[in-house]
Design a protein that fits this description.
The complex is a heterodimer.
Chain A (H helix, E strand, L loop, with lengths): L11 H6 L3 H11 L1 H23 L31 H37 L1 H15 L3 H12 L3 H27 L3 H8 L4 H9 L4 H24 L11 H10 L6 H28 L7
Chain B lengths: L1 H27 L14 H10 L6 H13 L14 H36 L4 H15 L2 H15 L12 H30 L2 H8 L4 H13 L1 H24 L5 H11 L2 H29 L1 H6 L1
Helix pairs in contact in B: 1-12, 4-5, 4-7, 4-10, 4-12, 5-7, 6-7, 6-10, 7-9, 7-10, 8-9, 10-11, 10-12, 11-12
The chains are: A mainly alpha, B mainly alpha.
Chain lengths: 298, 306
């Protein structure tokens, strides 16, 4: 039964019959309860961090020295720190920084890694050998140590933090993208694009990359928690975000210093940070199962 | 095999040279020097100090001098600890960190391999789910969260351990567990994956058909191949344990090389920073090299791909 070319749109069911990879993946993801849990948690945390500070009647620098550290109560739901600052507001502000660093540094890593890997994989040959040798060498460098040095020497600069962390995390992305590009570039539709006389850049960005989005998305989701961990690690050593700004790493560090008397200062930031990382990892795992059929077979 | 090892060795040497050069010049272009913190220093004394340590010479000359003395295995005098050489400081602090790292790695391997094997053998039972949850926890809860929380619970509230310090054997327990915990999780995941693949293969079925006990099949036949993914993870794991010990040594106030490294960077102790960076670089590269070789030895496929 053929449909006239000018007919009205087919029913939604019909559209779903020929569903796209993205739609399939979404259906599979929705079945994975842990991944959905992660997604919901992340959304809640992100919205709270964005909106929460405006709704609460305290500023993150607002001190009440006479109050000091007070346990959770009706006035301050999560208590206050030793300077009498509301912990909930500081937690939400810290979340903005932590999530922001996570997203921004991941974006840096994503951009470098994808372009580098795509170029190496697409052109192959000597260029590929040289580029990947460089990645091999950089892999063997003690990078966290360099990041620590950078932060000690040029510290107190959040932009540098993004760049330094991003520069560490792009290596794996480059390897993944390269191997994917090498697999895709031999396919017939790429040959067709070449035959049509498209430029190399257009073939890479318009034809190859959209076809390897799955692994890129998966690895990006897993990079965000890694980046947030690195930021918190640096902040914990006193090298990341500087006061009066705070991030979850800073709050955990402060809480750990005062945990003997004021345990809530450690417990709440630690719990929120871990919950966020949990959610991101669950989501990443779920996405891998949904998008990347090959690696989900175990 | 020989060609494989030499090419890896050359690559490591090149990387090491890059590390030394980059670090050397990076710390020199940083504002502040090793003597800026001491207020009592007059310009004259400062000049004498700088002359004493050779800091008044041109930079390229200092660089060459450093490389020459490095060739003799001499990492130079510390700028912050008078009358102590970097070699002595590393000799003092490294054994502490090495002990901590070895204990942590042992903990990670024992727990991780046991859990991973159990999860693979009892696949899709509650044992498997407990092991996976544990794995997720290890990946998602960072050491600097686990550490303080365990100290709060086990040391401060229950009083089982000291909250910090590095004196008796009991002081080793918490730091090693916290540091190892983060790596037990990936080890268990990798073991599970590797074992699942091996347990489905024909030679395991043959062993079963011959009447070998399940325990023997696992320990004698499956583990060797099933642990291959774990071996390739050991390089990054040891590197991570080395840097992870910065945090552990800070939390538990352990006098190891990690804390010394962070302090030396704050103090602008040029030679100590360089010395520790070189130490870490050499350790990490040597470990990666060993892992590559072991991997090739365990699996001819890896070797042939090279």
């Amino acid at each position: 039964m053929s449909v006239p070319a000018t007919a009205t749109l087919p029913a939604p069911e019909a559209l779903e019959q020929g569903s796209s990879l993205g739609h399939d993946a979404w259906l599979r993801l929705r079945k994975n309860q842990l991944a959905v849990f992660g997604l919901v948690c992340l959304a809640v945390v992100a919205v709270l961090c964005l909106v929460g500070p405006w709704l609460l009647p305290y500023g993150y620098e607002e001190q009440k020295l006479e109050l000091g550290a007070s346990p959770p109560g009706a006035m301050h739901w999560l208590g206050t720190d030793t300077l009498g600052r509301d912990l909930l507001v500081r937690l939400l502000y810290g979340g903005r920084i932590s999530l922001g660093v996570g997203l921004a540094a991941t974006f840096v890593a994503l951009t470098i890694g994808v372009v580098y890997g795509a170029v190496a994989g697409f052109f192959g040959g000597k260029l590929d050998a040289v580029l990947m040798r460089i990645v091999d060498i950089m892999y063997s460098l003690p990078f966290p140590i360099f990041v620590i040095l950078l932060m000690v020497f040029f510290g107190k600069n959040i932009i540098l933090l993004f760049v330094a962390i991003g520069a560490v995390e792009w290596l794996t992305m480059a390897r993944i993208v390269r191997s994917q590009v090498m697999a895709v570039k031999r396919m017939e539709f790429i040959e067709a694009a070449r035959a049509l006389g498209f430029g190399k850049r257009r073939i890479i960005f318009r034809h190859i990359l959209p076809n390897i989005l799955g692994p890129i998305i998966v690895y990006t989701t897993l990079t965000i928690p890694a980046v947030m961990l690195l930021e918190a690690f640096l902040s914990f050593l006193g090298l990341g975000v500087q006061p009066p700004m705070s991030s979850w790493g800073v709050l955990i560090k402060d809480g750990a210093e005062k945990m003997e008397e004021f345990s809530w200062l450690l417990v709440f930031p630690a719990a929120l940070f871990s919950l966020t990382l949990f959610s991101l990892n669950f989501l990443g795992d779920g996405l891998r199962d949904a998008l990347d059929v090959r690696s989900s077979k175990d | 095999m020989f060609r494989f090892i030499t090419s890896r060795l050359l690559q490591s040497l090149l990387a090491l040279f890059l590390v030394i050069t980059a670090t050397f010049f990076m710390i020199r272009f940083v504002p502040g020097g090793p003597f800026t913190a001491e207020k009592a220093v007059t310009p004259e004394i400062l000049r004498n100090l700088e002359a004493h340590y050779g800091l008044d010479r041109p930079l390229w000359r200092q660089y060459l001098d450093y490389l020459v003395s490095l060739g003799r295995g001499d990492l130079g005098p510390s700028f912050k600890y008078p009358n102590r050489t970097v070699n002595e400081i590393i000799g003092d602090k490294l054994p502490v960190s090495a002990e901590l790292g070895a204990l942590a790695l042992a903990f990670a391997l024992v727990i991780g391999i046991t859990l991973g094997t159990l999860a693979a053998v009892y696949r899709n039972t509650w044992i498997d789910y407990v092991a996976s949850t544990f794995g997720m926890m290890g990946i998602s809860i960072p050491t600097f969260v686990v550490g303080p929380l365990l100290v709060l619970g086990l040391a401060i509230h229950l009083g089982w351990f000291n909250a910090s310090g590095w004196y008796g054997p009991a002081d080793r327990v918490l730091p090693a567990i916290v540091l190892g915990f983060a790596y037990a999780a990936p080890v268990s995941r990798l073991t599970r994956g590797g074992m699942l693949e091996i347990l489905g293969q024909d030679f395991i079925r043959t062993a079963r058909a011959k009447g070998a006990s399940e325990l023997r099949i696992i320990t004698r036949h499956a583990l060797r191949g099933g642990l291959l993914p774990v071996v390739s993870f050991l390089g990054p794991a040891v590197a991570g344990i080395l840097t992870g010990s910065f945090v552990i040594e800070t939390i538990f106030q352990i006098p190891g090389i990690g804390r010394e490294f962070v302090n030396s960077a704050f103090n602008r102790d040029y030679t100590l920073v360089l010395g520790t960076v070189i130490l870490y670089a050499v350790l990490i590269m040597a470990l990666n090299l060993v892992v590559d070789i072991v991997q090739a030895w365990m699996n001819p496929k890896v070797r042939l791909e090279e």
